[in-house]
């Protein structure tokens, strides 16, 4: 596994696909005010990916769904259900999100992926602990993906 931790904007990464830490996809996206990475995707890429994710219906905690990247320069966006219905992340939701996003990226032939710190924004999970869990989970995976973990959220 080739994993790098960087401190910059997720949307500025030179990768095939990025991960968006999303919710369980039960509340319609247009009723939400996307923040963090989701807000930056909506602002810079448009609403297309959110309209696509809505078509998938409710997502199990930790699951991952691929959408287009709309106006963003990526081949796609992998949305992970990183927070529960109370808008909280857990070690389990973070680990499952990392595993499932990586699996979706590999199944779709992507070579590189960039993750935000899952659960560390709206999910209210400690950033350092989230990073530690994510790196630990990524190290367990046998993957040929080039992986970037971005410490700071998109603007």
UniProtKB/TrEMBL annotation:
Name of the molecule in the record: Appr-1-p processing protein
InterPro entries assigned to the protein according to its UniProt record, in alphabetical order: Macro_dom, Macro_dom-like
Source organism of the structure: Rhodopirellula bahusiensis
One protein family per Pfam: Macro
Sequence ranges assigned to domain Macro in this UniProt record: 1-155
Family matches, as PROSITE patterns: MACRO
């Amino acid at each position: 596994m080739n994993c790098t931790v960087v401190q910059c904007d997720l949307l500025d990464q030179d990768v095939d696909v990025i991960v968006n830490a999303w919710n369980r996809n039960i509340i319609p996206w247009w009723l939400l005010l996307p923040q963090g990475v989701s807000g930056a995707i909506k602002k810079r890429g448009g609403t297309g990916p959110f309209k696509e994710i809505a078509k998938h219906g409710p997502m199990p905690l930790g699951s991952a769904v691929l959408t287009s990247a709309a106006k963003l320069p990526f081949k796609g966006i992998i949305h992970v259900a990183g927070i529960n219905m109370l808008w909280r992340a857990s070690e389990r939701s973070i680990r499952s999100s990392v595993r499932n996003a990586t699996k979706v990226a590999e199944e779709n032939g992507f070579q590189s992926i960039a993750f935000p710190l899952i659960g560390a924004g709206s999910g209210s999970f400690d950033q350092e602990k989230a990073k530690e869990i994510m790196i630990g989970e990524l190290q367990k995976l046998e993957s040929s993906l080039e992986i970037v973990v971005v410490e700071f959220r998109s603007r």
